[in-house]
Amino acid sequence: MPHAIPRTPPRPQRHTTIAIAIAAACLAIGSVPHPVQAQTTQAVRHYDIPAGPLDQALNRFAAEAGILLTIDAKLTGNRQSNGFSGNANPGEGLKHLLRGTGLEAVQGQNGWQLRRIPATSPRATELAPVVVSASSSGTPGGTAGDFLSKAPPAVGPWEGRTLLDSPYSISVMTNEQAGNTVARDFDQLYKMNPVVQNSAPNTIFGYPSVKIRGFDHSTSIVDGVRLSSYTYGLSTEETEQVEVMNGLSGFLYGAGNVGGIANYVLKRPTYDRLANVTAGNYGGGQWFGHVDLGNRIDEDGKFAYRLNAVYSDGDTAKDDQQMKKWLLSGALDFNVTDNLLLQLEAAHTYWRLDRVDTRFYSSGLSYWPDAFDVKKTYTPGWTFNETESDRIGANVRYNINDALTLRSAYLYKKDRREFLIIYPIYTTTTGWTMYAPNRATPYDTISQGAYTYLDATFKTGGIAHKLTAGGSWDTYREEKHASNYVSPLTDSGAPYPTPSELTTEQLHDLTAPNYPTNYGPRYKASQAFNKNVVIGDDIRFSDQWSALLGLNHATLETRSYATNGQLSSRYKSSALTPTVSLIYKPVQPLTAYLSYMESLESGGVVPNDPTSRKSTATQSSTSAPATGPS
């Protein structure tokens, strides 16, 4: 049944207002609706509507705008809105809230109504001018506007706050930014983020390696799910945005890096037609093609999909270096009922780099040498780095009633790795030499992560609460061969002599050694577990004052195994990590906040005897968790 949102919602006149709304809806049946136009004659005001269920976002907008909006629950169903923060008139604001839902708002003689965008309607092509009109009333547009986040960040168990209202230091890098800069990998995005420093290029390890607040960061959060593995297999083409949080994240995601975390938000299905085909060049002879498709599958929007396919192959901008990548990534929305949404996603990625970049060392130098030629890799052509990744995930959202919402997610990722990387040494007297060029044998890393949260909204007096309770967990397992690395051999099977006294040209053209192919049996080399039990309350005292209070009982455990399967070491620790945030909005576009958070972090290895030397420290295994304020 359609229901209407009144212009004014005073409680004493509820029955009268509903009657008027129903009458208006009936009268509207005989009227001819008009598509939303850029209405400069209507009042322009500021809105700050958080992302969340579409019907809730529309209800709040209609109440703030003072308009009559008729909604059919069958249309909104489980659809989500990206929210809207900015200045707009009612027509423009509705367009922002409905973007990507496959719905549009039309104005009749008795208010506004929702309807599906007709698949053959020429009005679907009229959306772009409205975006320009909206930007003229306060929303940035053009190239700069494309770099703005279209959705609020996923901040652990918290949901529904805009980026402006989140009491954390978060910077967002969008897919539009990646497209406009032709970003081959996440390194290109991180270089443009002032709070992040690249510590090693993607062409060394095969994943982004950065420093946040001076601390190394290489693992990740994917769609709000924590994974303890490196970020192998993720691609800029399948990512909607990257959210970088500065500082502790213990309450949000459990034991983790004290410097900060990055959340990679994957692209999701669209409910209107999307068909983007891109061809380009990353530099050198590295051409690429990218297809991005999305749409609802059926007319009612019960099913919707998103598909991304990428292929890239060719020489990079460096001499004789070749990179190959291909990706197939898909996502599916299934609106089981009006209140139950099931989302599935899966991806397969292959990435290989020949003539790798590497770290190199110096010996016997008492001065800084002249800069080396950045077009060269200083590695021979038989070095390589290869990763094949498979990922599958699921999300469930169930709106139990107006006050209760259940949300849950699960993610599985498996990476198959193999590489041969050398570490050259530069000397002024004998030229180039290197450490022994050992080859890493194939190994697998398997990561799983999940969360489940129950949100309950209620009021105590005039104070609004959103209480969230639940938990999250993730596991990491590494499976290797008994021989993790194999030593090089000559053609005769003798040990390969480490080359020395090489010129740069000789280093680049070095003859490849041979390697044994018997790696021994496979075994589980290590395993890690992280578990979090969370309760938090999002409290809103007024339009200006709010607070976040939460507790997380975090547990981390790591285990190492010998090649015979026996447990060789184990570490386990737990801690109760709180968070407190006080938020104040003196005016709509400005938020001031004070946040405190603690985090559990695995400590380093120290000697049992504090007077023992560094050489004996590696023989002990005592360590302690580290906690501290944000």
Report what the structure shows.
Helix content is 13%, strand content 47%. The relative contact order is 0.09. Helix 2 (54-65) packs antiparallel against helix 4 (90-98) and helix 4 (90-98) packs across helix 5.
Q: Give the overall shape.
A: globular
Secondary structure tally, helices = 12
Helix content: 10-25%
**What proportion strand?**
over 45%
Please, what is the average pLDDT?
A: 82
**Biggest sheet descriptor:** 14 strands, antiparallel
Q: Rg from C-alpha positions? A: 28 Å
Number of strands: 34
Low-pLDDT runs: 1-41, 120-146, 611-630
The end-to-end span amounts to 48 Å
Helix/strand-derived class? mainly beta
Feature tags:
630 residues, mainly beta, 5-stranded mixed beta sheet, 13% helix, 47% strand, globular, disordered N terminus, disordered C terminus
Brief synopsis:
Helices cover 13% and strands 47% of the residues. It is mainly beta.
What is the topology?
Blueprint: E1 2-5, H1 14-29, E2 34-35, E3 45-49, E4 52-53, H2 54-65, E5 69-72, H3 73-76, E6 80-81, E7 84-88, H4 90-98, E8 103-108, E9 111-116, H5 127-136, H6 142-146, E10 169-174, H7 175-180, H8 186-190, E11 196-200, H9 202-205, E12 209-212, E13 215-217, E14 219-222, E15 225-230, E16 239-246, H10 250-253, E17 260-266, E18 274-281, E19 287-296, E20 303-315, E21 322-337, E22 340-354, E23 361-363, E24 384-399, E25 404-420, E26 424-427, E27 431-434, E28 439-460, E29 463-481, E30 485-486, H11 504-508, E31 522-540, E32 545-561, E33 567-587, E34 590-597, H12 614-617
Parallel strand pairs: 5-9, 14-17, 23-26
Antiparallel strand pairs: 1-5, 2-8, 3-7, 4-6, 8-9, 10-16, 11-12, 12-13, 14-15, 16-17, 18-19, 19-20, 20-21, 21-22, 22-24, 24-25, 25-28, 26-27, 28-29, 28-30, 29-31, 31-32, 32-33, 33-34
